[in-house]
Write a structure and sequence with these properties.
Layout (H helix, E strand, L loop, with lengths): L37 H12 L7 E8 L5 H18 L5 E7 L2 E6 L5 H19 L3 E8 L6 H16 L6 E3 L2 H13 L3 H14 L4 H13 L3 H14 L4 H13 L3 H14 L4 H13 L3 H14 L4 H13 L3 H14 L4 H14 L3 H14 L4 H26 L1
Parallel strand pairs: 4-5
Antiparallel strand pairs: 1-3, 1-4, 2-3
Length: about 400
């Protein structure tokens, strides 16, 4: 990602929702921690100022299904308030509206956690029945590990994001996975330092979670902290030497450190563990090409393009190989596929232009593609050279034809 050799398709590997056939939420409640809204800050202030008889409470975030009708959305606040008041009062709890369909509450003075959990389920069921809508809930408790009261509020937001991965009518209690999801969200937003904090907190709860350890390593790697990344990946590999994403990530570290031979060793190991991982086949093909093993490289790149036909990079690299071997027609076929996937792929645009030039056909089209490649990368000397050659052929063609006519 941040390294000059890499594209968006050659990067550190992490577990994501697609691996479990579940969909991430469209909107994350934990984003409120980065851009606090007035309702959130109001509740935060009330919670921290409230004196509780016992030093324990539960914080709960509730969302009524966002695809409900406007009529239900209009009833949501009144229904929630009435339901809250039927179970609790201002001496035992407090609540705030986050938006039209989302609410946050905290309550205390319960006999035990089992009774508290029963109260939350009863609250959920009553709201569901009144509104005939699905309810999503995230719950966090205090005290828990070394989290503060404010942390408990943020943990509830992270818990409902965790619940959202499993769809409507889900209730999740905050745990280490909630922190992994939160860390991944921060990672996506480029908030790497904060993501590291969440991954580390997750490991305090679940020290041997290989996904958290790998995620922490990835975050270090993307920040250029390669020694720290290596330490985490090696820790994960000791736990499970056959975890393909960890083996792959160590291989990527070796490539970043310009040790292609070691990188290939790890990528071959990853291929041996699972030969149906797109990123492994793509990167191994790329590495073998760098190591001047074109025949083997093509084998893995072909597999990569079959595993993910939407990968423009796999087709582009194959095109480069064929172009280098003067197999112009094959090269053009691969570059054409890459351009269909990504019309702004400058390398493939220029490569396709060159393939037409070598075949001495469709030179007008070749000229257009060559110009487009330079428009995207104006300082690329190779692209300019290819354009100049094509222009020269086009300019010379009418002269050659005139000589034939007058001979």
């Amino acid at each position: 990602m941040t390294h000059k050799f890499a594209s968006k398709e050659i990067h550190f590997l992490k577990i994501d929702s697609d691996d479990f056939n579940i969909q991430p939420p469209q909107h994350y409640f934990s984003d409120l921690l980065l851009a606090k809204t007035i309702p959130f800050e109001t509740f935060e202030k009330r919670l921290l100022e409230t004196k509780m008889p016992k030093d324990n409470f539960l914080c709960v975030v509730i969302q009524i299904s966002s695809d409900t009708s406007e009529t239900i959305q209009e009833k949501a606040k009144d229904t929630f308030e009435a339901t809250f008041n039927s179970f609790l009062d201002n001496k035992r709890g407090l609540w705030e509206t986050l938006n039209e369909t989302s609410f946050i509450l905290a309550f205390w003075d319960y006999k035990n956690e089992e009774k508290a959990s029963q109260l939350i389920v009863s609250l959920k069921n009553k709201i569901c029945a009144a509104l005939k809508a699905d309810i999503l809930i995230g719950v966090a408790k205090f005290p828990f590990h070394n989290f503060s009261k404010f942390d408990t509020l943020t943990n509830a937001l992270k818990a409902i994001d965790h619940a959202a991965f499993f769809g409507p009518d889900t209730l999740i209690h905050f745990d280490a996975i909630s922190l992994n999801i939160s860390g991944d969200r921060l990672y996506q937003l480029g908030e790497y330092d904060t993501a590291i904090i969440d991954y580390k907190k997750g490991l305090e709860i679940k020290p041997n979670d290989i996904n958290l350890i790998n995620s922490l390593g990835v975050c270090f790697g993307i920040m250029g902290k390669l020694d720290e990344a290596k330490e985490e990946f090696e820790k994960a590999m000791k736990m499970n030497p056959n975890e393909v994403m960890v083996v792959y990530n160590i291989g990527l570290l070796h490539k970043i450190n310009n040790d292609i031979d070691k990188a290939i060793v790890y990528l071959r190991k990853a291929h041996g563990i699972d030969d149906h991982v797109f990123e492994v086949e793509l990167f191994l093909g790329y590495l073998l090409l760098q190591n001047k093993q074109k025949k083997l490289a093509l084998k893995h790149l072909e597999t990569a393009s079959q595993l993910n036909p939407n990968s423009g990079l796999a087709f582009r690299v194959k095109g480069d190989i064929y172009l280098g071997d003067k197999l112009a027609e094959k090269a053009g076929h691969e570059f054409n596929k890459a351009i269909k996937i990504n019309p702004l792929d400058a390398v493939s645009l220029s490569g396709y232009a060159k393939s037409l030039d070598l075949q001495n056909k469709n030179l007008t089209i070749a000229l257009s593609f060559a110009k487009n490649s330079i428009a995207l990368e104006p300082d690329n000397k190779l692209f300019k050279k290819r354009l100049k050659t094509i222009q020269g052929k086009i300019e010379a063609k009418p002269i050659s034809e005139e000589k034939i006519k007058t001979a």
